[in-house]
Each structure stands twice: as C-alpha cells, then as structure tokens.
C-alpha cells in the first residue's frame, strides 16, 4: 500500500512526517532522507500494531499533494 506522507520543517530545522490516513503515525529526522526512512519504519510498526490488536488497517484515501504558490 502507498500512503501519503506530509513533511513539515520544524523551527529547530528537523523534518517531521505524518501520515493523514494513519492517525497517530508520526516520525521525524534531521534530513529528508532520514525522515523518509523513519516514517517508513513508523508506518510498518503502526500497521503491525493495528493487526496485532485485531483492528482494521485503514486503506489509503489520500492520493497526492501539491505546493500552491500564493
């Protein structure tokens, strides 16, 4: 499954990542590469936890993002 990940730069320059389709699934990193690696691991761990608890794994519903210049 492919989940949309939203990346945001924090005031301390770390990069935070969240997955809108998996509430509570967050991670961060010092670089974009590290944040991508960490959120991939977080998604896998999150899904594993849902399955272990017998909960439904949400299907991805977000399909994309785009920066809009204003």
Helix content: 25-40%
Mean pLDDT: 95
**If you compute it from the alpha carbons, what radius of gyration comes out, rounded to the nearest whole angstrom?**
13 Å
Distance between the termini: 33 Å
- Strand coverage percent: 15-25%
Instruction: Count the E strands.
Output: 3
Contiguous helical run count: 1
Q: How do the strands line up in the largest sheet?
A: 1-2-3
The description of the largest β-sheet is:
3 strands, antiparallel
- Order of SSEs: EEEH
Which spans have pLDDT < 50 for at least 5 consecutive residues?
none
Oligomer: single chain
Tell me the overall shape: globular
Structural class estimated from helices and strands: alpha+beta
Which labels suit this protein?
70 residues, alpha+beta, 3-stranded antiparallel sheet, 1 helix, 17% strand, globular
Q: How is this structure best described in words?
A:
There is one protein chain. This protein has 70 residues and is of the alpha+beta class. It has one helix and three strands; from the N terminus they run βββα. It has one helix at residues 32-52; strands at 6-9, 15-18, 26-29. The protein has a three-stranded antiparallel beta sheet, with helices on one face. Strand 2 and strand 3 form a beta hairpin. The longest helix has 21 residues, at 32-52. It is globular and about 40 Å long.
Write the topology of this structure:
Blueprint: E1 6-9, E2 15-18, E3 26-29, H1 32-52
Antiparallel strand pairs: 1-2, 2-3
Concise summary:
Helices cover 30% and strands 17% of the residues. With 70 residues, the protein is an alpha+beta fold.
């Amino acid at each position: 499954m492919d989940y949309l990940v939203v990346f945001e730069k924090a005031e301390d320059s770390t990069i935070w990542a969240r997955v809108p389709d998996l509430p509570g699934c967050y991670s961060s990193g010092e670089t974009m590469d590290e944040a991508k690696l960490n959120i991939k691991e977080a998604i896998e761990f999150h899904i594993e936890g849902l399955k272990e608890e017998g909960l439904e794994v949400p299907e991805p519903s977000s399909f994309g993002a785009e920066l809009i210049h204003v």
